[in-house]
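Progress against Task 2.4 (sequence-to-structure conversion) is shown through the following example record, which the project officer requested during the mid-term review.
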Amino acid sequence: MAARYQIAGSSSAEISASVETGIRTGGLAPGDALPAVRALAAALAVSPATVAKAYQELRQRGLVATAGRHGTRIRPRPPLATRRAALMPPPLPGARDLSAGQPDSRLLPPLGPHLGLLAAEIGAPSGYAATPVLPALAAAARDRLAADGVPAEEITVTGGALDGIERLLAAHLRPGDAVAVEDPGWANLLDLIAALGLCPIGVPVDDEGPSEPGVRAALAAGARALVVTSRAQNPTGAAVSAERAGALRTLLAGRADLLLIEDDHAAELAGVPLHPLAGATPAWAFVRSVSKPYGPDLRLAVLTGDEATVARVAGRARVGAGWVSTVLQRLVLALWQDPATTDLVRRAGESYERRRDGLVAALAALGVAAHGRTGINVWVPVPDETLAVTALRDAGWSVAPGALHRIAAAPGVRITVSSLDESDLAPLAAAVARVVRPAPTGFTA
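Structure tokens generated for the chain above:
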């Protein structure tokens, strides 16, 4: 534990509140170890059971994680607004930031012209929405999903993919339930699962998606939900192949005790065909965000699934946020219907493919294995993440440590290619190769 911050309290509630204050103020940083239960109990003159209960409350809220002999530590990204971020070293002045995981702003469609047209057409201000989904948007979404083989009789919209997944998990599961997730996987999803008090079960991932043995093991371990990234998996770039989809559909067929969630966040940017699992289980949902192709500020995702599941999500939204802004829905519909925007998104996908494939090929030429079948990220296995992130930062490249994405997977770093130019690929690959295969040290004959 950081020496500058002392945990206080005489009850479990006071102790957990003290730890929360330490996280919020920066006295306890991500990764900091908390004292052993008995040690803190002795220091505070309370029973070990009181400290154990406080730590349990913090775990259930996703603020800390317990990892066997490594003890209890502050999670890499606890669900709490903090005054100080200590997740990774900030880029050095002049360094290239390849850690953000965002699309290339140069390739996002301009919103101004469409907003101007909407301003002229939208008419008088409207009141509270009578229906949460504009009929025209729902019809367009059904057509787009049907073209990819996704049945979409029931449609609702949420404030982005993560909002949709949160509503799905909250509607079906309770704290303590197990969720099977890709490992390595989406850091935001891992943080969400912790914040909901759910227990993640890591499923190994290869270039064709979550492995069939891994899903089988997760089901045997009691997983109540399974979250699968259809394409452009973050951080590995995996995409579910036709063969893998067939194997998983067979494995999942008829599992009435399992909620199946598919996340197709890349959508039109993916560059490979979609092989959906939709309908393999009685309770299922398919979520498609618009943020990657059209802009991160467009917080909207289309969600389809079985009737009961969609009704739960829509009903929960009705007693909360109510609906996703109809102005935003109109803007997304205008972007979908604009041929120039469609062409721009297609060209953006091709550009990402050239940069991603180019980096993977440049690394392979230097003897470095990397993964990046689709999307905007490349995953590079490394022997030591801290050394790799620090060395690359010193060389002028800021990358994301794999620890943000891993449960039990081997170490790695995530490199986002969206801000790279093709001229950057060779020097970046050389820098990564030096980290993965450092030059020998010591005396030589």
